[in-house]
């Protein structure tokens, strides 16, 4: 039989294909790249897979991996680091009950408040369930006030036993946590409280290893914060409520404090070893006990800076900056600036920043008083807050070298003040008064190491030629100082 060739062979092949003959033998389906990758991951040990699941974030997302295969089913229950986000308390209880480990390294719970709100018992049972897992690190957050209580009273809840916990963070608005008698936290090193309250005077003695304490967004019901600890090394406190703050921590190295002293608040700080400090205090009124008693301190700030940063003229590698806002006022005040400073661990002040609302009054005696209190000041920065003189509250007699506010100390212009550390002076907002020139002359006389003086007039002021020439003549008397006038 002759062999088929050409078109005939093509027709035979097409017929065979239609009859099912000539097709390749049926075998395993091709494996895609993603399927191969899943299989390889599934072959990894449980500990490695748990690390992968921990990187997913929320335990709800980790639980969804159960649909991948039998290998992944329930694998999330063995997580060592558990993060729960935006679940209702019932769902959180169910998730915690399914965890296979008797103890976890970290447990972070963020509660989603149901529409009907929460009861105190809900939070109490949730904290108890979390404590039952003996977490080394525990954080619980219920950001909104959601308790069904009358008025603005806080709900009291007892802390659970946390023998293994080294770090505890609580953000549960409207709750006052109570530590039961005899309960000790032997391993607790870090305690963070936000928007909730606790009797720290009773709590801290039960934490023998406490090193870091953070207290922020304190409720208005908190009127006293007492922290006495021999082990504490870092303390952060921030509160808008008027409070009495008492800190005694001999080992403290870092202090960050922002508070409202109001009219009756108080501050006492004993931290002899502190290295890094940041204090911001707002006062209703605190008078500087000069002859006039009209100067009122309304803001006090102290912060640590590195040399070469905020203070380029500083020699020290680390320096401390004091910021004061002072106004001329007749507000009644029983709080004295000198007495308050004795209660605060003010280190050597290298930079003095002053914002002065003088209302046109002579400010020279005030600044000299402060420079005598802090003789190590190297940089003096003054901002006069007025933008323009006003008839109703300016002291125009200051422009004629006479001012009622300096009547008891008229000789200040001729004083000899030792400013041996001062190297840099900057004054903004001058108004063309001759008492300002007298103050500059006094600075030049008392600061032998002075390197730079820069002055800038208030934008609304056009000085007379005599005042401007007097300033220039004063600058020319000290050619070794870099002097600048900005009009």
Automatic annotation (TrEMBL):
Region spans: Disordered: 1-33
Location of the F-box/LRR-repeat protein 15/At3g58940/PEG3-like LRR domain: 158-262
Protein name (record): F-box/LRR-repeat protein 15/At3g58940/PEG3-like LRR domain-containing protein
The species this protein was found in: Panicum hallii var. hallii
Lineage, highest ranks first: Eukaryota, Viridiplantae, Streptophyta, Embryophyta, Tracheophyta
